[in-house]
Amino acid sequence: MAETSTVQLVLSPREWAYIARLLRSEQDKLLHELNHTATRAFRETLHAQLEMAEKLIARMPDVEE
Asked: What dihedral do alpha carbons 22, 19, 7, 11 form, nearest 10°?
């Protein structure tokens, strides 16, 4: 069984805002790639990555950009 660990990041609001921008940019790229991908296996991989990005964004503290 794989071990899991929890890490609590302590970042400034500016750093959180930067990470939020990176994740949103990645979301946009993944959505674009999904629209241009025909291979089912690759689409599933992209969907999983998109879902992970969305979950991370949802868990982030509210920050002003």
From this structure: 170
